[in-house]
Amino acid sequence: MAGQTILLIALNFILSLGLSFFLYQNKLKDKNKWWLAILRFLSFFIIGLILIELSTEKKSISTEKPQLLVAVDNSESIAYLGDTTQVKSALSFLKDHQELNQKFDLNLIKFGKDVNLLDTLNFDEQQTNLSKVVDFYQSDYSENTAFVLISDGHQTVGSGYTYQLQKTNPDQNYALVVGDTTQHPDLSIEMLNVNQFAFLNNKFPVEVFVNYQGDQAVSKKLTLSKGNQKIKSEQINLKPNSALSHTFYVNANVLGNQDYHVHIEALSDELNTENNKRAFGIDVIDNRHQILILSDMMHPDLGALKTAIESNQQNEVHLKRTSEVSGLEKYSLVIFYQPQESFSPTFKAVLKRDLNFMVILGTATDYKFVNALNLGFSKPVSGVNEDYFASQNPDFSLYQYQDLNFESFPPLESEFGRLQVSDRAETLLMTKINNVKTDAPLFFILQDGQHKRSVLGAENLWKWKAKSYRNTSDFENFNVFINQHVQFLASNTPKQRLKLSSESFYKQGIDNEIKAQYYDANFKFDPNADLELKFKNKNTKTTFSSQMLVKNQQYTANISQLAPGEYEASLTKGDFHKEVSFQVLAYNPEKISKTANRDAIMQSFSKNQIYLLDDVEVLASQLLASEIYHNVQISQTKPVRLIEIKYLLIILVLLLSIEWFSRKYLGLI
Fold it and tell me: Would the CA dihedral through 139, 143, 148, 149 be positive or negative?
């Protein structure tokens, strides 16, 4: 007990004694009433003890064992390799090993697409994400942890787990390899490079990448088929352990969705023939948007726009000066880049024909000319340039667009001054100046019936394209963002309250979604609608339905569980009805190989810490013999009360009650 506590108790004793004497000094002359003062003294003394909170420190020591994390692959590829019994046997051996459980705190998880605690193993996961397992290991476990991966090393989704695992201590990572690590001769179609759309009566390319593992040169037939009909074939020659690509050019002579597949002839001793074929689909269309970009100046924005728009095969871009424009009949959309007085004839023709158009402003724009056109917006002429950062408008609902994380993008440039727009403008991006968000529009849309026009209030769009490339190592997200806007402007379809969209083809087992939007009478997105999507398999005529869920300002239905085949989907909400058709192509990435991914495992684990399933006892012995795992003693010091307050309160109430009744009995109150 600390000296300070003893001093407080002594002071409490003296103070309690003094207060009792002061209150009962007239009663102390009668020795028969001294006990009343003693009762009051005890009451004061107990109150003081409660206020002092008598306590001491209690030290406890606990021992924490090292962790043993065992992660088991629960994907279809394990069953395809035919090793499920061995996997379960090896797992049971580790789980029931008495010495391992004495040394380690054993934790078991299973994984496919996601990571879960191990309950049962059924090896039916259609995707494998090993990077999530490594993330789980790195985030939830300490350095005093042994990690055992039971897998064939094949990953179908996720980032590269080899690099992630290299960030951990390699001496703590072990692999129990499922499947044969011997490299058997194998021919496979690794990838197809083909666009989703083709145009009627045109030829479209199909680039096929063939991989060969084997010691002898081979010559095999590569065949392209449509349904049961052979379209084209080519004899290809492959050197030992090599790869090549071959391109078929196919006539698109039938409109609509067309189903194709590519097949490479199997080797005589090939174990796995599942990876010798690939299916794909083409949507043959008969229309193409003709888009005019009009500019009388050279600027890198023009090239960025042209390549982005033409990344969609449905678009054809014409870049012209005002002096080169002869007619506008064929154009679905006109883009005016930094308009000046020379644009006047074209503007008049566009407005007369009610063509949809887009205006991009900048430092070279003639704002007096633009303001005089009365296009629904205006901007004061300042002659001073300003940088404008972009900020998303969360209330924008005209169409769904690619989120590029605009607030991290470099600024665009234009003349200083706020854009004044009409009340009917829908703002997609707002301006942010000096890191201060404003409600001033930067990128907005004006819509009057079917006539649509948009305005981007600043130049240097090419910087956004470069930033998007730095973020994702490709231009795809930027191209998608531009094409979503171009598609909206180029289409003259009236605004609809119910929309339903799907791809023409989906691969079986991949995270596929059908999307819908529903708007209220004011064309604001309604997140509370009850939308049920109905499906019909065109082949089997079976029907079923799925409730659509709200996700990122749209409704979605996951169709990753659908079997291969042709489907119709319909959606009804009140008087509105929409239908789409799509096809699910046979695809199972879990059956790409009959052997373990030896290369990935060798890159991820130290050579002396890789074991076959038959060597699980050797693995257990190494874990037990390792000296890097140790018990950790944890010391905790907690304050402990010497006397519980509840007992002191009971005694206090009892003493005060006795004193009160005694004083009442003696007639002192």
Answer: positive
